[in-house]
């Protein structure tokens, strides 16, 4: 089990063995691809695992896909539509019912759920980022299970390329999670597609994503929009923030508990030993608008010597972006190794590409030092030689410490006391940075048999809400008895 770095332990008032765990449930794990119905059995088993983790004193957050899929089910649609407006409407329909399923099942297990809807743009704003972290702190302190989803009705990017994998990594970054579990319909990352290559073998541990040779050909189903490529992107973000990411199968949700106990299941991405903190951790959550490719010299200067980016090393500009937008920094092959906030828009960067500083004044018509991205606005996704982040420090009041303080303020009877945390007032002082500046537990529930009966009763009630066609095909099996 991953241990929290000693520098964090010293600041904690709660045991470091109480982990913050984010579980992302993909559409393929919730919706039956053949009939387009919600798999209540699978959802209930996952919720039972959440109950078990919560009973051990861990803090659990669920990132759930499936709103559009459930919307299709409620309207009896046999295929997922392709028009954006239709997807947004279906997400609005499905999210209501999806949350009711979570509420009914978690309530039967003795847990209280809460709903959090986010967009990438919310996290891009520093003050909103701090406010979101404060909200999660309060929700966890109250003992609830936050259920997070992208605000699909307005989040155009998510509905275009389906990136709840990335959203879950950003949530894990936001709450300083120890583990992020991506539950999907495959049991691990393979060296090749196991469906067509009998020699394919699972990859259980990945320490260096940049040197990874694996099959990433799997794409989303007709009901979902994710794939293995988005999971690798999520792994880069999570591991850079110090979070261990695990790809595992939703067919065996109990495997999460086993993996935490040391079992070799799924694919585990090892976090960087020196992870990003403070402002640079926030940079991981800012939506990327484009990419800048560079030669080996510029990459070495940024990754190993911690220098800023200048035009002379730029070899290619991808996409259209404005000044202060986040961009990916890539090597000569297009592999992303860092992210940063650009001081110039894409047209200016393209014009400055490969130029020396002395040439810029005549080119642009004004004097500039040509610093495309200041090192204080750079976040490395991969470690370099003698890796260190000289401008980074652990936040004086991270989510863990704030959570411990929040719990300490609660009355002895467990009722939470409102203490009026103001996120906006802390945005500029909480970790010593200003968002607008540039560069710079709970005991286990008693009566397992009674609880199982409650879950079964909820499942039976929910089954009546399913489509008649689904019931005719037997797609709503009874809940299995929990494994202990």
TrEMBL record:
UniProt keyword list: Amino-acid biosynthesis, ATP-binding, Cytoplasm, Kinase, Nucleotide-binding, Proline biosynthesis, Transferase
GO terms for biological process, alphabetical: glutamine family amino acid biosynthetic process
What positions does the domain PUA occupy?
290-373
Q: Name the SMART domains for this protein.
A: PUA
Q: Which InterPro entries match?
A: AceGlu_kinase-like_sf, Asp/Glu/Uridylate_kinase, G5K_ProB, Glu/AcGlu_kinase, Glu_5kinase/COase_Synthase, Glutamate_5-kinase_CS, PUA, PUA-like_sf
What Gene Ontology cellular component terms go with this record? cytosol
Q: Where is this region: Disordered?
A: 405-458
- Give one GO molecular function term: ATP binding
Which stretches does UniProt call biased (Low complexity)? Answer: 412-432, 444-458
What NCBIfam families has UniProt attached to this entry?
A: proB
PANTHER family from the UniProt entry = GLUTAMATE 5-KINASE (PTHR43654)
What protein name applies here?
Answer: PUA domain-containing protein
Q: What is the lineage of its organism?
A: Eukaryota, Viridiplantae, Chlorophyta, core chlorophytes, Chlorophyceae
């Amino acid at each position: 089990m991953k241990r929290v770095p000693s520098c964090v332990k010293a600041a904690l008032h709660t045991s470091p063995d109480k982990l913050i765990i984010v579980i992302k449930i993909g559409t393929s794990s919730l919706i039956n691809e053949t009939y387009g119905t919600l798999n209540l059995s699978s959802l209930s088993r996952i919720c039972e695992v959440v109950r078990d983790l919560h009973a051990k004193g861990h803090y659990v957050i669920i990132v759930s896909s499936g709103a559009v899929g459930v919307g299709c089910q409620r309207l009896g649609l046999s295929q997922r539509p392709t028009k954006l407006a239709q997807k947004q409407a279906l997400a609005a329909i499905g999210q209501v019912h999806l949350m009711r399923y979570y509420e009914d099942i978690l309530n039967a297990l003795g847990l209280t759920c809460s709903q959090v809807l986010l967009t990438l743009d919310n996290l891009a704003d520093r003050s909103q980022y701090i406010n979101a972290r404060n909200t999660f702190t309060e929700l966890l302190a109250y003992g609830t299970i936050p259920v997070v989803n992208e605000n699909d009705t307005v989040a155009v990017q998510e509905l275009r390329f389906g990136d709840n994998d990335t959203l879950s990594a950003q949530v894990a970054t936001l709450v300083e999670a120890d583990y992020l579990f991506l539950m999907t319909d495959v049991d691990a990352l393979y060296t090749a597609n196991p469906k067509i290559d009998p020699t394919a073998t699972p990859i259980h541990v990945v320490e260096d994503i940049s040197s990874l040779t694996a099959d990433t050909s799997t794409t989303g189903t007709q009901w979902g929009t994710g794939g293995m490529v988005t999971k690798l992107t999520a792994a880069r973000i999570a591991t850079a923030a110090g979070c261990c990411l695990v790809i595992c199968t939703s067919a065996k949700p109990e495997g999460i508990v086993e993996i935490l106990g040391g079992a070799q299941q799924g694919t585990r991405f090892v976090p960087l030993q020196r992870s990003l903190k403070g402002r640079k951790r926030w940079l991981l959550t800012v939506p990327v608008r484009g990419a800048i490719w560079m030669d080996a010299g510029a990459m070495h200067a940024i990754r190993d010597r911690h220098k800023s980016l200048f035009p002379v090393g730029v070899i290619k500009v991808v996409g259209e972006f404005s000044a202060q937008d986040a961009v990916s920094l890539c090597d000569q092959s297009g592999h992303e190794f860092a992210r940063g906030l650009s001081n110039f828009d894409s047209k200016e960067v393209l014009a400055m590409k490969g130029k020396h500083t002395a040439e810029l004044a005549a080119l642009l018509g004004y004097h500039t030092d040509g610093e495309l991205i200041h090192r204080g606005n750079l976040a490395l996704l991969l470690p370099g030689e003698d890796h260190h982040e000289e401008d980074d420090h652990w936040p004086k009041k991270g989510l863990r410490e704030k959570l411990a303080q929040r719990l300490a303020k609660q009355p002895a009877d467990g009722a939470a006391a409102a203490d009026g945390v103001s996120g906006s007032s802390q945005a500029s002082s909480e970790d010593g940075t200003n968002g607008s500046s540039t560069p710079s537990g709970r005991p286990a529930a008693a009566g397992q048999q009674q609880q199982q009966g409650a879950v079964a009763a909820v499942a039976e009630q929910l089954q009546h809400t399913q489509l008649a066609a689904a019931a005719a095909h037997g797609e709503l099996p009874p809940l299995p008895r929990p494994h202990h």
